Recover the amino acids of this structure.
């Protein structure tokens, strides 16, 4: 029976994917429109990967130049400054807030996200929902490792857990740990075109959907 739910954050709990896409555009606007287009496309196709890894990729594969430690830190700091307040104020994905509030007493809730740990802690606290989550895991912790650690620490059977995400990194983290996966699709349908999993537009019917999993398990 399902007793544990892992949530990605951006695009699953709050509508913040576009906020971060715009931040990437702002960071690299001085490089020209062609670079901005490539950077934003890369971000949108890899939404579940941490910005740390994205900056490294952008410099190596798109800009074709080295990334110094000072420049890396500058990018991280500026990005956080661009997005934190906006994400705090971003609207919830339809049904997310209601599900979290109504079912927190029934399930163990965890957030597993690529947002940096200190940043996601601030965002969750300021949104007033920290009390609903047993733990929150952000970058640089890998998503697969976070789920694995929770399953071991809490003694949770993977059959009794679900991960809700909107990126391939979320799907892979769930698959790596034999946890079932629900994809939230919202202009990212192509990512999951060849993936066999349940796909939902929002979380408004999540309570009913999860009941379908209570008596089946991945083998």
């Amino acid at each position: 029976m399902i007793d544990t739910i892992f949530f990605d954050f951006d695009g699953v709990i709050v509508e913040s994917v576009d906020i971060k896409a715009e931040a990437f555009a702002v960071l690299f606007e001085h490089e020209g429109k062609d670079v901005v287009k490539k950077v934003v496309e890369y971000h949108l196709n890899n939404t579940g990967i941490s910005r740390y890894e994205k900056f490294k990729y952008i410099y190596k594969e798109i800009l074709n130049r080295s990334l110094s430690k000072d420049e890396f830190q500058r990018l991280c700091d500026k990005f956080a400054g661009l997005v934190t307040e906006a994400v705090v104020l971003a609207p919830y994905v339809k049904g997310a807030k209601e599900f979290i509030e109504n079912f927190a007493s029934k399930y163990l809730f965890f957030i597993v996200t690529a947002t940096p740990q200190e940043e996601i802690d601030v965002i969750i606290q300021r949104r007033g929902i920290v009390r609903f989550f047993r733990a929150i895991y952000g970058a640089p912790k890998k998503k697969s490792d976070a789920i694995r650690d929770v399953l071991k620490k809490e003694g949770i059977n993977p059959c009794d857990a679900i991960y809700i995400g909107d990126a391939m990194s979320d799907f892979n983290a769930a698959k790596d740990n034999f946890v079932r996966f629900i994809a939230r699709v919202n202009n990212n349908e192509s990512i999951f075109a060849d993936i066999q999993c349940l796909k939902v537009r929002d979380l408004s019917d999540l309570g009913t959907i999860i009941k379908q999993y209570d008596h089946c398990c991945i083998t």
Notes: Residues 110 and 182 are 15 Å apart (CA to CA).
